Amino acid sequence: MSGTHDFSYEQLRDLNVFLVRMEERTMHLHHDMEIGIVLEGTALIEVSGGQQRLWRGDLYLVNPMEPHRFLSGGCGDGLLLIAQISPQLVARIFPEATNLRYGGGTSLRPAFPQSSQQYQRMAEVLMDLGGAFFARSMGYEFRCLGCIGELYALLHTHLPVTVLRREDDLPQRERADRLLSIIEYIEANYQRKLLLGEIARREHLSLTYLSHFFKDMLGLSFQEYLRERRFEHACHLVETTDQRILEISLACGFSDVRYLTKLFDTHFGCTPTEYRQKKRVSRRTRPVSLGCIQSFFSREDSVRLLRLHRSRCGEWQRGRMERHFGALAAGGEEYVVHNAL
Question: Would you give the end-to-end CA distance of the chain in angstroms?
Fold first, then answer.
């Protein structure tokens, strides 16, 4: 997968929504605001160097051009509904949208300690957005725009907001655009021998400056990022093809198959062949899963799965309200369980 998001349906301009079973995702960034919810399992996300464990029902937010990645974390993979929204989508009615940056941390739960209903509403709106986007019924574009407007309103009401000044934003955009150019070049060439010096010459930068620039922007060295990207591709090939491990190693840019085997042992505690066997057993229990490190779902499967999760959420919400009013009738207090979404 590239440093910019590279999976999409035929979509509304400036909006992409997808359902994904996320196990691991290389460090990347994009010009969109990203908001997501964990529907099943857990996810470990790292944003600008800080890690956050997300549990079932947790919402998260990533600002435009914030480097982020998902880590395996040893707790299994999570099912996530993710929306990537370009600020350009609302810039005509809110011209400063492209310069908005929301604070308060990656997880949105701490921002709503006294507003659980508003937090629940944000989760509902995000699922409404996904439902409209995947189903594509008549007028779905207006439903999507309505959901996006409400999401922005909720974020603007409950999170600290910074509007970047144009003179401050321009240098950041130039650095971000350069980083995107570098990542795109890596994506096109990581399967062969690739040295930092080659990229430095292409970008007309000194090797020392580029090395520090890469580390400052992504929190990873060039070699660390290149290794992660190659390993991500290797995991996908191990699971989804019958190629020999040596062939996969060479196809992903690893010159020594023993090094690839060592990476599998470090990440998963098994050999590549054992990983292949385990994943194929897992795929038989989850036939709609399409990949290994991150498994995207088709529109049809997304509609079905999202409908299932919204039904479960509705059942929980009805039970929650019954407990709430029962407690009020008894003169007691409502007890809200974390992760109950």
Answer: 30
**Cα distance between residue 8 and residue 84, in whole Å:** 10
CA distance 63 to 38: 18
* Secondary structure string (H, E, C) spanning 224-288: HHHHHHHHHHHHHHHHHCCCCHHHHHHHCCCCCHHHHHHHHHHHHCCCHHHHHHHHHHHHHHCCC
The predicted model scores a pTM of: 0.74
Say if residues 238 and 245 touch (Cβ distance below 8 Å): yes
How far apart CA 279 and CA 285 sit, in angstroms, is: 10
Residues 6+ apart with CB under 8 A from 184: 2, 3, 4
Domains by residue range for the chain, with CATH: 15-164+298-313 (2.60.120.10), 231-285 (1.10.10.60)
Which sign, positive or negative, has the C-alpha torsion 299, 45, 271, 193? positive
The token pair that represents 320 in the structure block:
């929650």
Interior angle at CA 83, CA 231 and CA 167, nearest 5: 90
DSSP state of 107: B
Q: How many CB atoms lie within 10 A of CB 193?
A: 9
| Backbone φ, ψ for residue 125 (5° rounding) | -65, -40
Mean pLDDT, contiguous 10-residue spans, the chain (341 residues) = 47 86 84 94 88 92 91 70 94 88 91 78 95 93 95 93 73 82 93 95 94 90 93 90 95 95 92 88 48 69 88 61 46 37 39
How many CA within 13 A on the CB side of residue 82? Answer: 23
Q: Cβ distance 74 to 25 under 8 Å?
A: no
